[in-house]
Amino acid sequence: MTAIAGRGAICAWGVGMAAADAGFAERRSALVDNDRWPTDWFLRGDAGLVPDFRPRKMLPERKAVKLMSREAQLATFAAVEAATGWTGDAKRLGAFAAAGYEVSSLAESEEMLALSADHGEIALERLFGPGRAACNPLSPLKILPNMALFHAVAAVGAQGPHQALGSSPAAGIAALCEAVDALQYGEADGALVLGADAQVEVFRAHLLAETGVAETLAPGEGAAALLLGGDGPVKVLACAIGQEPVAGTEPREHYGRIADGGRARAALYAEVAGDGVDLAIADLWNDPARDAKERAALPDCDVVGTRAMIGWTGAAHGLLDVVLAAALVESGAAERVLITCSGLAGDLGAVLVGR
Amino acid sequence: MTQIVVTGMGAVTPLGGDVPSTWEALLAGRGAIAPIRNFDASGFDTRFAAEIAEIPALDTEWGAIRDAAAASDLLDRKTELLLVAAQEALGQSALLVDGRVPRPLRTAVCLGSEGGRRLLQEVAQRSVRFSEDPTVERAIPFLPVGERARARASHPARILADAVGARGPSRTVMTACTSAGGALAEALWLLRHGAADVALAGGTDTLVEAFMLSGFSLLGALSTRNDDPARASRPFDRDRDGFVLGEGAGLLVLETEEHARARGAPVLGRLLGAGLSNNAWRITDSPPDGEGPRISILAALEDAGLEPADVGYVNAHGTSTLMNDASETRGIRRALGPHADHIVVNSTKSMMGHLVAACGAVEAIVSLCSVRDGRVHPTANLQNPDPDCDLDCVPGEARDVPGLRVALSNSFGFGGSNATLVLGAP
User: What value of ipTM does the predicted structure carry?
Assistant: First the structure.
C-alpha cells in the first residue's frame, strides 16, 4: 500500500484538480469544436481541449515555457500542483513518467521546411542553410520523449530515480507501478508519477483516425500527476501491468480489439481488485461492442468511463482516472475504486485505490 | 539478495558486427569515425560520424524474422540492428528452444529506444511534396502506415518480444542518452523483485540521418573537426569540441543466478546494481559540480551493496563535450572520494561515437569484457589532458588492470537523466 500525498490534473474539464474533480462529479462532456487546425480532412471536428491554460502565467519558470512542447507544459502544471506538499530531500524524490511522442512542435518547423524545399523535395543543402537559419536552436529538444519529464522534475526539483516509459495509454499505469516499487524497495522516499499527452496534435489525431479510435472518441489533451509516499489516508492498494494478445499487425488490430475475448484483462483486473470494488473507472471507448467485453472483464461494480467526456488523452489517461478516483475515495463517495487502462499493442494496466 | 547474471551478450557497432570484433577494435585503439557516406552531408557544419558500413547477415532463422517484419513494412534500421545483436546474445546464452523462450510469461524485454526520429524526416519530405506551402497537417495523411508503427519507441521491443515469444513485462525507456542504461536498471529490478526470471535488455539507435545531424548541430553539441574526423572524438582532452554521432545496438541476456545455474547456462558476468538520478537543472547542460552523476553513482553502489573502494574501473559517459567530461569527472571524484585516484576511467565513445539510446547497453558489454579480461581499452585521442578532467583516463594504449572485479558504467542524457550500472566478474 502506498499513500497518495498529492494530486495534479489538467484536462478538458479545466485547469487544476478542482476543475477536474468537478467535471467528473457532474459527468459533464467537455468536448468542444477543435480550432487547433483545419479539420475538414479529419473524420470529426470535436476535441477535448484544455480551456483557459496560460502557460506563461501559470508555470513557475516563464522563460522555460518557450522550450516546452505542449505535453511538457501540461506535465509541468500537473507536477507542480501534485508536488506542492513535498518537503523532503530532493535527492529522495523520484519521478516516473509515461511519455508520448512529443511531436506537438512539428508545426513550428513549417517555415524551416518551406525554406528547405526544392521542387517538392527536401534539399539537404537548403535544410542546412536557410532552413536551419529559420529554426530555433532549441526546437529539436522539444521532440525528445523525456522532455515533459525533464521540465516537470526541474520545476519541482526532483533529483531521485526517474524513468520515462514508452508511448502507450497504459504507460501511466506502468509508471505508477515503477514508482510504487521504488518506494517499496527504499530507492526513494517520495515519487512523482506523471502522464501527459496532446492527442489533439495533428500527427496523433490522424493516428487515432487510422486506428479507428477516432470513430468513437474525440482526440484530447491533458496531464495528471500523483505524489506518492508518506502517510495519507488514500492509498494505491494494488497496481499491475500486463499484456493481451493483439488481433494482428495492422494498426486497427493493435488498438483495443480485445482479441482474446477479454480473458487476459479479466485475470489482471481480478488480481488487482482483490476482495471487490465499489466502482470501476474503466477502459471504455464509447464503442458498444468493444465496451461490452471490457465490462464483462470487470468485477461486479458500478462502471464509468471518462474518455467519452474529455477525449482520448493517450499517455495521460490512465493516471487521470487514478487522480479522479483518489478524490472519490478521499470524499467518502467510494471505498475501493478500480481503474483500468489499455494501450498500444496489447498493453494493459490496472490500479486499485482505496483507504 | 537475488544475484543477476549475464548469460549472453550481443552487439553491432561502428567498430564491428559482434562483441568480439568490437572489443578487439577497442583494445587496438582503432576508431570508426569517418566522413558520412549515408547521405550528402557536404553542406553541414559536421560532415562525419561513426556509421555501420554494412549490417551483418543474419542466419536463416533470424533472417526469416527480419524478412517477415520487412514484408509488413515494420522493419527499420534500428530494429534490424537489434535483431543482429539479439541473434548473437541469444545464441551465446542458448536460451531459446526451437526459436522461442521456454517460459514466455517469465521473460521480460527492457529496451532503450527513441521514437519518431525517422518520422520527422518522412513528415518533412511529404509536407513539401504534397503541398505548395509545406503544411504539416496536410502531409500527415500521406505517411505510410508502417512509418507510424516504426515511429513508436516501443516498436523494436515489440518485434523482439514477438520474435522469441516473450510475454512477460515489457519496458521501453526513453530518456535520450540514458535510455539503455535505464532499461538495464529496469531489467535488474524486475528480476531481483521476482517479476521475471529472464530479461532481454539493451538498446538500439540510429542517428546518422540528415535531420538528426541538423538538430544536434543546431544545439552546438557536435564536433566540427571536419579536417580530421578520426581525431574528432577526444573525451577528457583539452581540445575537445563536441560529440560524434554513431549508431548501433547492444543486447544482454540477464537471468537470476538460480535460473541460469539450473539450466547450465554460461555465466559471463554480473549486473550487481544500478542507480538513477535526475539533475533537475538545465535542459542540455550538466551541472558543473557533478551532483547528478554523484547521486547516481552512489545510488548504484548502495544498490549493489558495495563501497567506492570496491570499484576498479569506470566506463565513462565521456561524450567529448566540454561540459559533460568536466562534470562527470567531478561527479566521479565526489562519489568515490580519494579512491578516484586509484581507478582507471575510459570513454568508448572516443572510438565508436555516441550511440545515444543504445550507448548504455554497448558500454555495459564493454565493461563486462574489461572485467572478464582484466584489461581496459584506451581513450583514443587523449593527447592533451584537460586539467578539469584529472582522472587516469587511459591515454595511448590498452592497459592491463590486474585484479579488476567491479566496473561502473555511466550514462547521462539530455533532460538531466543519469544512470550508473555496477558490473562484476562471473
Answer: 0.82
